[in-house]
Amino acid sequence: MALFDHQIRDSLENLINVADVEIRTDFNLGYVVDENDYTSNLTAHIRRIINTHLPLRVTTVSQKLPAHAEQVLGADACIVLIDHDRGECKLCLFEAKTDRNNWDYLKPNKTPKVSHFSTQLARQVNPFNMGFAIWEQFYSSHANGQAIGNRNDQGSTCILHSNAIAHNGTHPNANVWTDQDIDNLALNQLQTTMGSLVKSVCECNIGTPKSFRELDDLLKDQLPVEHLLFIEGGKVVSSGEEFQSTAQVYIINCSRKNIGHP
Predict the structure, then answer these.
(1) How many other CB atoms sit within 10 Å of the CB of residue 24?
(2) Strand residue runs (E) in the chain
(3) In sequence order, what are the beta bridge partners of 24?
């Protein structure tokens, strides 16, 4: 069963894409300096724009993780989509990359040799099998409207994990990824915008729905990503009354574990 109603899903797709396009402009103009800065600004901008235009409650969390936890899922960010009316949620993960030179490389001091990106793809297999919707998100520093290969000329380009993991051999391996690999995958994927993938997740075309109990179990263990975006909807949210926000509960639990967040 789909999360939210169709009007909200359509608006969600559009607003997320608008936010992505606007942060790409900031990246092009130098106000955003790298992929972590882009992800932080993007999730914050999505929060502002959706909270302004839709009857949803969006919360962002940026957290410092213990060194051993930083690379567990092979992803930079998690989007948690929660429909309080249906009692269901979906979880998305994405790994962010910018169009800098040598964005993938052979990891030093590793035998046998493996590419950095291939190790991230390999780590994503476990959460993918758990029902997370996962994609690789490629940010562009070029001005909006400028076509680069087969990638989107507005905003970023998202490649589904299921497509990436089937490309370039069994991961991890020593095949270093190039821009051409991304162009080839983008050419053969129908929808590559961030907004379209989030909408597809809401429509249950990607990922597996989770119950609130399953979500609670996942959140109790501290999702090991640096950036989280909680998008919560339902009558209890749109009514404007106080409700138990999953994001706020998560933040409180983080504080108890002495994990920092702004």
Answers:
(1) 24
(2) 57-62, 77-83, 88-98, 133-139, 157-160, 210-211, 227-233
(3) none
Residues 239/233, Cβ–Cβ less than 8 Å:
no
C-alpha–C-alpha distance, residues 118 and 124, integer Å: 10
> How many helices (H) and strands (E) are present in the chain, helices listed first?
9, 7
Asked if 173 and 118 count as a contact pair (C-beta separation under 8 A), the reply is yes
> 251 is written with which tokens?
């933040």
> Could you give the count of Cα atoms lying within 13 Å of 74 in the half-sphere of its Cβ?
21
Nearest to 140 by CA among 165, 103, 176: 103
Write out pLDDT tens, residues 133-158. 999 999 999 999 998 899 999 999 99
Q: Quote the CA–CA distance of 168 and 149 in Å, as a whole number.
A: 19
Please check whether residue 103 is in contact with residue 136, taking contact to mean a CB–CB distance below 8 angstroms. Answer: no
**Closest-CA residue to 174 (of 226, 124, 222, 107):** 107
Amino acid (one-letter) located at 123 = R
| pTM of the predicted protein model | 0.94
Peptide bond into 66 cis (omega under 30): no
Q: Strand runs (DSSP E) across 108-155, as ranges?
A: 133-139
The answer for residues whose C-beta is within 8 angstroms of residue 225's C-beta and 6 or more apart is: 65, 73, 75, 76, 77, 78, 93
Q: How far is CA 154 from CA 46, 101, 125, 136, in A?
A: 16, 20, 29, 16
Residues forming beta bridges with residue 60, ordered by sequence position: 229
**What is the rounded CA–CA span in Å between residue 93 and residue 95?**
7
Q: Which two tokens stand for residue 191?
A: 């929808």
Residue corresponding to tokens 């907004």: 195
Residue pLDDT, tens place only, 204-237: 999 999 999 999 999 987 788 999 999 999 999 9
Structure tokens at 211: 């119950």
